């Protein structure tokens, strides 16, 4: 098992150059035995420590570290296929009246909602005021028509491994988007483009990258990290034993 840990994206390296690899940093801190720290809570503690070190650094030198100044790249697979605007597809199916497959052009034609809120990862890092823009998930659910037995939504990704879940009530919130844009740019591959989920009030692990499937189910099926110990109801500040300020 490989606990949630950021990596260097395989492409789109940060503009100021490649950050020091995580393994190098851990080695420097004498924490090279990360491999034995497999419990998510231990891992979160470690990452929170690294995050705090960056938050308190007055020199700005932690900008060189993998956790410096913003988002960290996460993928549970070593490579992820690229989908262009032409070959991307999003399937909405399961307990619905009209299963539908959307192209990126289809999604772009629908009304777009822009939200600007903090992003909070369960490992401790937080990025203030980040714009996300896309189609409300509730709009897509209304379009396909949820059957009366539908209680939850399962999300799948074209990395072939990551999954997520929401209850139907959570999925219908107005601050849950099928996001096409982030930071006022089309979503790049490393941030889960061309389309990712954005669940504003929950820890960022809910915001599945490289979204390819939305399936209405009769009950919640815990997602990738939830099968590995994370809370299924992932409200920021009210789950995972954390007390972060809410994001939504
Ligand atoms: N498909 C997929 N989505 C994912 C993840 C992942 O590994 N694979 N990691 C999650 C976690 S734990 C976080 S913090 C965010 C990171 O998003 P970023 O890589 O854009 O910073 O993506 C979430 N969505
Ligand atoms: Mo995360």
UniProtKB/TrEMBL annotation:
InterPro entries: OxRdtase_Mopterin-bd_dom, OxRdtase_Mopterin-bd_sf, TAT_signal. Pfam families: Oxidored_molyb (PF00174). Residues 79-225 form the Oxidoreductase molybdopterin-binding domain. Residues 1-20 are annotated as: Disordered. Coiled coil: none annotated. Transmembrane segments: none annotated. This is Molybdopterin-dependent oxidoreductase. It comes from Streptomyces actuosus.
């Amino acid at each position: 098992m490989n606990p949630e840990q950021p990596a260097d994206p395989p492409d789109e390296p940060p503009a100021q150059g490649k950050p020091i690899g995580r393994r190098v940093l851990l080695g420097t801190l004498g924490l090279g035995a990360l491999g034995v720290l497999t419990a998510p809570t231990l891992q979160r503690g470690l990452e929170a420590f690294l995050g705090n070190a960056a938050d308190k650094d007055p020199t700005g030198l932690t900008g060189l570290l993998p956790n410096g100044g913003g988002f960290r790249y996460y993928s549970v697979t070593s490579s992820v296929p690229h989908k262009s605007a032409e070959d991307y597809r999003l399937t909405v199916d399961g307990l619905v009246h009209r299963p539908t497959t959307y192209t990126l052009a289809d999604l772009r034609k629908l009304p777009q909602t822009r939200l600007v809120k903090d992003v909070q990862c369960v490992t401790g890092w937080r990025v203030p005021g980040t714009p996300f823009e896309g189609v409300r998930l509730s709009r897509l659910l209304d379009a396909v028509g949820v059957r009366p037995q539908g209680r939850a939504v399962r999300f799948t990704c074209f990395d072939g491994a990551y999954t997520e879940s929401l209850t139907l009530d959570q999925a219908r919130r107005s601050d849950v988007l099928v996001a096409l844009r982030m930071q006022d740019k089309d979503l790049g591959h490393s941030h889960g483009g061309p389309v990712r989920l954005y669940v504003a009030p929950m820890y960022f692990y809910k915001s599945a990258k490289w979204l390819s499937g939305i399936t209405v189910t009769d009950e919640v099926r815990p997602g990738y990290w939830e099968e590995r110990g994370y809370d299924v109801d992932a409200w920021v500040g009210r789950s995972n034993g954390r007390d972060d300020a809410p994001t939504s």
